[in-house]
Amino acid sequence: MNEYKISDISIGMKESFSVIISEEMMQKFYDITSDENPLHVNETFARERGFDNKVVYGMLTASMISTLGGCYLPGKYCLIQGVEIKFVKPVFVGDVLEVSGEAAKVDYDLRYLEIKVTIKNQKGEKMLKGILKAGVIDA
User: Fold this and answer.
1) Considering only CA atoms, which of 60, 56, 74 is closest in space to residue 113?
2) For the purposes of burial, counting CB atoms within 10 Å of the CB of 31, is it exposed (0-12), middle (13-18) or buried (19 or more)?
3) What is the CATH number of domain 6-136?
4) Running DSSP on this structure, what letter comes out for residue 68?
């Protein structure tokens, strides 16, 4: 876990990590949310609608933004204040996601940070883009 303080962060600073989306992650997300939309839980239903397989919950993919902020940029001192996201393409079980963040705005006086977020799959296709807005509570 990184421990960047606001004074350590500059515009253009980058951090990233990879994660493989598993069936177990899908089941745990279902157990927490009870989202039984057949697009996420029924392979036949999803395939009949033109998808390669069940579609991973969008919010499961987006939850990786929490890991980005809370563990990587800024890490330990992150207090997420808001997230703006756009789902670009569907994610499927087995996809290897590269979650990347780049500091786009830093306000040292307010101890505030905006991070441009991109999530790509193993083919380099952009799956999600967004902005993470966070306070840095290092005092």
Assistant:
1) 74
2) exposed
3) 3.10.129.10
4) I
Q: How far is 32 from 74, CA to CA, in rounded Å?
A: 27
- What's at 53, amino acid-wise? N
What does the domain layout of the chain look like in residue ranges? Answer: 6-136
Extract the tokens encoding 70. Answer: 């809370």
Please tell me the number of Cα atoms within 13 Å of 24 on its side-chain side. Answer: 1
Which residues touch 102 (CB under 8 Å, ≥6 apart)?
12, 13, 14, 115, 116
Q: What angle do CA 24, 58, 9 make, to 5 degrees?
A: 100
Handedness of CA 24, 28, 29, 31 (dihedral sign): positive
Other residues' Cβ atoms within 10 Å of the Cβ of residue 106: 19
Q: What is the DSSP letter of 56?
A: P
Q: What is the pTM of this model?
A: 0.92
pLDDT digits (tens, 9 = 90+) for 81-106: 999 999 999 999 999 999 999 999 99
